[in-house]
Design goal:
Blueprint (H helix, E strand, L loop, with lengths): L1 E4 L14 H9 L3 E5 L10 H7 L2 E3 L3 H6 L2 E3 L6 H4 L7 E4 L7 H10 L2 E4 L14 H18 L21 E5 L3 H12 L3 E6 L2 H11 L3 E5 L2 H8 L4 E4 L25 E4 L20 E4 L2 E4 L9 H22 L1 H7 L1 H4 L2 E4 L2 E2 L2 H7 L6 H4 L3
Parallel strand pairs: 1-2, 1-4, 2-3, 4-5, 5-6, 7-8, 7-10, 8-9, 10-11, 11-13
Antiparallel strand pairs: 6-14, 12-13, 14-15
Helix pairs in contact: 1-2, 6-7, 10-11
């Protein structure tokens, strides 16, 4: 199969869909790889390294979208890229469709078969292709939050760790999943006081077992969230419903009770955000202030650590890329129910129930599409 890795064009996105080592593995399997010139430079991979691995370097994205049967990306295709997609082409990338009707519309119109990293499942019930980026984003969130708590960036002027005689900052994490647990670990390591809220008692028990009394856990109700927000210097939104629009946990009327200059890092923004006041931002313009609260809602947070993120992502995606390339997308999905869960759009049809529900669209089950 001919596989293409275009250069990402989202604002300050330096990750790349394939590492040179992944290219070498795929070439060894008999596949042809096209890599756009300078696609990996931001992550530290020169074109010469891709060529040594067996890839062909092409000028610009057009040869990839014109020739590749499988396109491997990191982030959702932007409008210019969506116009280049064609029927029977397979797109394998993060999509986060539920809160983005425009993206869904364009992908439906393209006729392409779109498989989303974030909804591929595992036998244990996890999300193996979302997990590595959730780990990165979770670990970045306290670091980013600490920066924007600084006075010159608009924050309260609070040091996360405090100093002897001065209390540490209060960090509230909404969600005890992968993002939340990693955010809690880093915030603790930075010396903050940490509270984690979740509606899943088992998730809270896991955190309690891992951190003991160092992390305070709270069962998430509207009343509980209102109370703990009053204490937060830094709020990290880490709520996830796989494939669906993130539920709103922090409503607009809660913001006035927060400390002026407090910071919200809404990691859930890819799926719409868990704060009613959240709206997508970019690395070029990462924050805005609403009701006196600094909001950081960058939709590609792991892009600031592109080398780490690209390796972590490829470690997870390569087996699935192999399966699609070796067997063709239809047979690969027929044989693997976990990869099948990633198919969101196919041949002009929405094949994800959560996306269809979020956008009021018709829904075609993947099993019907594949005649299983």
């Amino acid at each position: 199969m001919r596989i293409g890795a275009p250069k990402e064009i989202k604002d300050h996105e330096y990750r790349v869909g394939l590492t040179p080592s992944s290219v070498a593995e795929l070439v060894r399997g008999g596949h042809e790889i096209l890599v756009e010139r300078n696609a990996g430079v931001g992550a530290g991979f020169e074109d010469s390294v891709y060529q040594a691995a067996g890839a062909s370097i092409v000028e610009g994205p057009d040869p990839i979208f014109e020739r590749a049967e499988l396109i491997v990306k990191v982030k959702e295709p932007l409008p210019l890229e969506r116009q280049k997609l064609r029927p029977d082409q397979v797109l394998f990338t993060y999509l986060h469709l539920a809160p983005n009707p425009e993206l869904t519309r364009d992908l439906v119109a393209s006729g392409a078969h779109c498989i989303a990293y974030e909804t591929v499942t595992s036998p244990s019930g996890g999300l193996p292709l979302l997990t590595p980026m959730s780990e990165v984003a979770g670990r970045l969130a306290p670091q980013i939050g600490a920066h924007f708590l600084e006075k010159q960036t608009g924050g309260r002027g609070v040091l996360l760790s405090g100093v002897p005689g001065v209390p540490a900052a209060e960090v509230v994490v909404l969600g005890a999943g992968v993002v939340g647990s990693h955010a809690a670990a880093i915030a603790l390591g930075m010396g903050a006081n940490v509270i984690v809220a979740d509606r899943n008692p088992e998730a809270l028990r896991r955190l309690d077992f891992k951190f003991g009394s160092a992390v305070r856990t709270v069962f998430s109700t509207n009343t509980a969230v209102r109370e703990i927000l009053k204490r937060a210097d830094l709020l990290i939104g880490a709520v996830l419903l796989p494939g669906a629009r993130t539920p709103i946990v922090v409503t607009l009327d809660m913001l006035p009770a927060m400390k002026p200059g407090a910071v919200i890092v809404d990691v859930a923004i890819d799926q719409g955000g868990c704060c009613e006041s959240s709206r997508p931002t970019s690395h070029s313009d990462p924050v805005y202030v609403r009701e006196g609260i600094v909001h950081y809602c960058v939709t590609n947070m792991p892009g600031v650590a592109p080398r780490t993120s690209t390796f972590a992502l490829n470690n997870a995606t390569l087996p699935f890329i192999h399966a699609i390339a070796d067997k063709g997308w239809r047979q690969a999905l027929r044989e693997d129910e976990h990869l099948r869960a990633g198919l969101q759009i196919s041949g002009g049809k929405v094949t994800s129930a959560p996306v269809a529900k979020a956008q009021g669209r018709a829904y075609l089950p993947v099993e019907s599409l594949l005649r299983l």
